[in-house]
Amino acid sequence: MNISLIVPVYNEQENLPLLFEAVYRIMNPLNKTWEIILVDDGSQDNSLSVLKEYAEKDPTHVRVVSFRRNFGQTPAIAAGIDYSKGEIIVLLDADLQNDPTDIPMMLEKLDEGYDLVSGWRKNRKDNAITRNLPSMIANRIISWVTGVHLHDYGCTLKAYRREVLEGFRLYGEMHRFIPVFADSVGARITEVVVNHHPRKFGKTKYGLERTVKVILDLFTVKFLVSYSAKPIYLFGGAGAALMIMSAVIMLYLLIRRVFFFISVMGSPLFQTSAMFFILGFQSMLMGLIAELLVRTYHESQRKPTYQVRATLNVSHDK
């Protein structure tokens, strides 16, 4: 299988026939083997019935995965990846705001040697206050924190080589952070401007509360990408900083005692210094425990601590 299109579906019964029409119009002329995996995320309308109808008409291309209840977009994408067979995976929304006509352009970018092609909705057709502005702020924060600079993390339309999606699981709202995980294993990433259309049918499933979830997930992503292999750098660094602050405060109290005869024990700074020292020491101990857990994880499951892009004249037999 060359290409797998993965489409999360939630209450999109009116959009699905138009989606299938657009996908067939774009994919059939490519002369590549392809499939479209539609994950019904507990839809409460007739979306699943529509999906079943198309799956019966075209079992060669159409695959349907139906959830027992609504789990969210990230689990739907994760399920689509798990059930897909394509060497190239393209994520696409079912609401037709993403344009399937952009898929061939993204595939051409992959042919140029990139591992991930991310869509950028430069002329986004959403509400400027409730959707565009929070998204712009979130994108800048994510780019600054992770070092992976993209204009539009929230655009579902992305194309991946399968190998850059292996080795991690998706939780929460983590699907938007796939480029960050891919970058951590050395993926070549580029961004292209894609079309964006106003929603024709149905209503959006997201509001301002999603921005808060994304920011919270960002803490997890930063830890997993930067410190999961060496957690002592985070916990030990924080512990060392606290212990240095404790030592500076104690030195200040000592100088006051020697030169100005001010009692050390009578100042609240003494309790603050002691608290910082204890917290710093505990943080270092947590870092050492985390190091043991990381080593147990990698060694018990024989997880590699590196990623190989390709080999030449190398045998891996043991």
Can you give me a brief rundown of this structure?
The protein has helices at residues 16-27, 47-57, 73-83, 103-111, 128-146, 178-184, 209-227, 232-260, 268-300; strands at residues 3-9, 34-40, 62-66, 88-91, 116-120, 158-161, 189-193. It has 318 residues and is of the alpha/beta class. It has two domains: 3-226, Spore Coat Polysaccharide Biosynthesis Protein SpsA, Chain A; 232-300.
Q: Structural class given helices, strands, pairing?
A: alpha/beta
* Percentage of residues assigned to helices: 40-55%
Number of domains: 2
Radius of gyration: 25 Å
Task: Count the DSSP helices.
Answer: 9
Strand fraction? 5-15%
CATH C-level class of the largest domain: Alpha Beta
Specify the biggest β-sheet: 7 strands, mixed
**Could you name the ranges where pLDDT drops below 50 across 5 or more consecutive residues?**
none
Query: What's the end-to-end separation, in Å?
Result: 30 Å
Average residue-wise pLDDT: 87
Full CATH superfamily name of the largest domain: Spore Coat Polysaccharide Biosynthesis Protein SpsA, Chain A
The CATH architecture of the largest domain can be named as Alpha-Beta Complex
Give the CATH topology of the largest domain.
Spore Coat Polysaccharide Biosynthesis Protein SpsA, Chain A
Please give the number of β-strands.
7
Reading side by side through the largest sheet, how are the strands ordered? 3-2-1-4-6-5-7
